[in-house]
Amino acid sequence: MRYSFQLALNGTNLSTEIIAGISSFLATSYIIVVNPSILSQTGMPFAGVLTATILVCFFSSLMMGLFARNPILVAPGMGLNAFFTYSAVLGLKVPWPVALGAVCWSGIIFLLLSAFNIRTLIIKAIPKPLRYAIAAGIGLFITLIGFTNARFIVANPATILGVGPLNATLLTFLAGLLLTALLVTRRVPGAILLGILFTTLAAYPLGRWWSDPGVTLVNFKGIAAAPDFSLLLRLDLVNSWQWAVVPVIFSFVFTDLFDSLSTLVGLAEAADLLDENGEPRHVKRALLTDAVATTLAGLVGSSPGTAYIESAVGIEAGGRTGLTAVVSALLFLPFLFLAPLLSVIPAIATAPALVLAGVFMIRPITKINWLQLHEAIPAFLAMVLIPFTYSITQGIIWGFLSWTFLKLTTGHHSDVSGALLIIDAFCIIALILA
């Protein structure tokens, strides 16, 4: 093992890699609960999504460790699961088997783009300010979902949105949010997972004494059970390959491509995991792993998988090789059998994690030059339209189209490439088909 992972060559050792793997797992483990809680709103069984989530985390992280030799975890992406549920299934009324088919097709497309290096042309065509803005917009979208799930933000006929009543449920959410924020700020290992557990325990009296239907915990069915493989191969590949679903596939490919790429670049720069050319180490293999993770997700019943920025926790702990990812992958497996226990976690317990996810995802907006209005305006539109329209696709589309329009009409023609014009054409098609 020491030889295959070249621990000494990478300035690490076995114990350091194991500790790093545990650290990355604790930082990422919240997805075990959060992903099923989001996707189950489409009608998919919670236990089935939990099993699919674990399978994606295990096999994809294992591949990242053994094939790409990087200390990076792969799991269903935050933002991608929100798009799957709220934009594709609930917004566009795409049946969830068809949406799973779209996930699989996007993985296959991503696989081809990575294998033939076409991704390089696409990456160069997408303006960096739009990449940063879209990441921030998805963060705001996830935060909105968190506040809505906690009933902190509610519908209001007079003002469109309003604040929910200050009752026991809302106070429990706020307590969970503040505690989770404190744990994250103090860099406590597994802070988000601990926040979820605390809020779940605090919510128990709400279900027992006040019979709050949103947080009731009286349907406890035990701790362990056999894995639920009911979503395995339930995808609809035929009906997902039609014009009406093309915008969904496009959004999956786009978001997954740049989410994974930005994560890989950011982690590589922070940890000095670079090759002799200054590129992220084994980047082609890493992107292939990401593509396989998305394809696998569609097959087993989850939203797309992607490289996780939380892997930075393990890297900070000294993880430098694929062994870190292998250790983390193995730690996911026991949770295959804990669906009954995890299914009692209410929406207000995962809501703090969703709110704080926005904090992490909005950081890239500091890289946008807000004084250059021909760049700032498209970036702003992309960022705010994602939460305001409750659609990641709409934010992406109008970000691209407004960028092209302003650049062409203000004399900055060199900032609009032929590849970007092709992407714009797909955006217009998506608007027509919507």
Automatic annotation (TrEMBL):
Q: Spell out the GO cellular component terms annotated for this protein, sorted alphabetically and separated by semicolons.
A: endomembrane system; plasma membrane
Q: What is the annotated localization of this protein?
A: Endomembrane system
Keywords assigned: Membrane, Transmembrane, Transmembrane helix, Transport
- Give the domain of life: Bacteria
Alphabetical list of Pfam families matching this protein:
Xan_ur_permease (PF00860)
The annotated topology with respect to the bilayer is: Multi-pass membrane protein
Checking InterPro entries in the record gives:
Azg-like (IPR045018), NCS2 (IPR006043)
| One Gene Ontology MF term | purine nucleobase transmembrane transporter activity
Please list every transmembrane segment annotated in the UniProt record, as residue ranges: 12-33, 45-66, 73-92, 98-118, 130-154, 160-184, 191-210, 321-339, 345-365, 377-401, 416-433
Task: Give the record's family classification.
Answer: Belongs to the nucleobase:cation symporter-2 (NCS2) (TC 2.A.40) family. Azg-like subfamily.
Could you identify this protein by its name? Adenine permease AdeQ
* Organism name: Adhaeribacter pallidiroseus
Taxonomic lineage is: Bacteria, Pseudomonadati, Bacteroidota, Cytophagia, Cytophagales
